Amino acid sequence: MTEPAPIRGLWCATLTPLGRDGDVDHARLASHVRLLLAKGVDGVVPFGTTGEGPSFSVAERCEALDALLAANVGPDRLLAATGAAAFTDTLALTRHALESGCPRCLILPPFFWKPLTDEALFRYYASLIDAVGDLRLRVYLYHIPQLSGVPIRPETVARLSTAYPGIIAGVKDSGGDFEHTAELLRRAPQLSILVGHEPHLARLMRAGGAGTICGIANLLPELIAALFEPDATADDETRVRTFLDFVLRYPFVPAFKAIRAAQTGDSAWLAPRPPLSPLTEGERAALLAALRSAGFGIAPETDGL
Amino acid sequence: MTEPAPIRGLWCATLTPLGRDGDVDHARLASHVRLLLAKGVDGVVPFGTTGEGPSFSVAERCEALDALLAANVGPDRLLAATGAAAFTDTLALTRHALESGCPRCLILPPFFWKPLTDEALFRYYASLIDAVGDLRLRVYLYHIPQLSGVPIRPETVARLSTAYPGIIAGVKDSGGDFEHTAELLRRAPQLSILVGHEPHLARLMRAGGAGTICGIANLLPELIAALFEPDATADDETRVRTFLDFVLRYPFVPAFKAIRAAQTGDSAWLAPRPPLSPLTEGERAALLAALRSAGFGIAPETDGL
């Protein structure tokens, strides 16, 4: 294993396709990932929030990572999301990722106990890193308080980075509050700071950030890639905002899946895992019609899903 | 397997003792449970919130249940907490409980996705019951929105009970809002309604409720048992409130564990699993001193922990 490169650029929080039995469809996931990489996405994060990570067991997540590697997706293109509610599950997922050659791990805080003090959160990550006990580990802290219920404050990030230099490698900030992101850049400039909220990407890059791990990259990676160009304009950002505004009228995972189903003509994409539900037929039609009328490239041949 | 009795009376949400390695101490857990049953507790719930359930893996939870059964704790004394963030984990835990002869399961809602609609929550439990596919299953819905982030509304309880009569057997209401509890009694009088918040117990019993699944039963079951007596007074309830007020100055799981350590003289009880931390020595001393000066029976021989 060579020194893993810091996560930079355009990374996709990949959707998780399911088979009719509700299990992860490994072949469809590998095809999706290969297509994304061919389109210029720098790497993928399976089982993040967009990939419904917390809805899958440790075994399901390990098997899917193994299947991606077996399908020749390189470890250099993977950031493994290994956070779970239970310490022992997070430990098992993180160890498995390392043993599989994927030392870069995106790790949620424990998301049942709240409120959690900054001290408790620091100790949780410290205990985890100590228990893994492998200097090759590269931890990307995952701040998404609207779902985890547990914010990771910039002070905690800085404290962890000081205690574990090199091992703490970055932060995925999906809080959607750019003030928090800017504070991360100030307090921990040595880390890869990435945003989940796509409309913040251009601003982040101007401020010295590393890139994005985002959901829209599943659907229209070129829309996000444009924001990295030196000649990116406010119009490019507006375009991303417009797309997101349409999507966020609905629960975003089922909405993303509906769009992917329409793009591919493959209705297998529609189903999320419980507790999430597919959009209704009416919701799906309204979403696709709105996107198309706004000029987004959702393949029209798939209307008859 | 005979028809499982509805959960009624005084049930204990058991603390989970850990060994030095941080793993579940099966022998200490079995001793604790046997002692509780000998003291008149009607049954126990391993791996609820007080038992730090969401902090343990599926394998750890299954092994601990097996160990309790192997230690001759009868299935009629057990309500298995089988909720987890992932659908597949909840399914595995619930199936295992049933296969082990414990058809009564206390099931958290999926606690990562929020907000979750009532419809999505209904479908989650329905999908789970359908997937288990065993008419012997008895589901106790676990309402604890302050930690799960997902309330289970009385309407959803009633709808589930209508869709799965007999299988939906009760609700543990740990929300601490008696109006919610009263609405459950009105909407689903056929179910066992149990409270987690001990000071509401006498009021619940007067209103036709079934009992409690509570944490204080780990420490002073007689304090709670008194509330079931026909001659229970407002003083008995005040006593419970006073005890709880002292405990809730601290995170309640480490506080309960500190008290249990003091009662038994066994410092192994002190440690919770990350992300929870033990009370500091100063916090522990202050808590025990306060309880003792208020006349609660915390064995004095254990001061020197």
Any overview of this molecule?
2 copies of one chain form a homodimer. Chain A contains 12 helices and 8 strands. Chain A is of the alpha/beta class. Chain A has one domain (9-229): Alpha-Beta Barrel (TIM Barrel), CATH 3.20.20.70. In chain A, strands 2-1-8-7-6-5-4-3 form an 8-stranded parallel β-sheet. In chain A, helix 2 (58-70) runs parallel beside helix 3, helix 4 (118-132) runs parallel beside helix 6 (154-163) and helix 6 (154-163) runs parallel beside helix 7. Residues 301-305 of chain A have low confidence and may be disordered. In chain A, 53% of the residues are buried. The A-B interface holds A 54-58, 60, 84-89, 92, 109-114, 116, 119-121, 123-124, 127-128, 146-149, 273-277 and B 54-58, 60, 84-89, 92, 109-114, 116, 119-121, 123-124, 127-128, 146-149, 273-277.
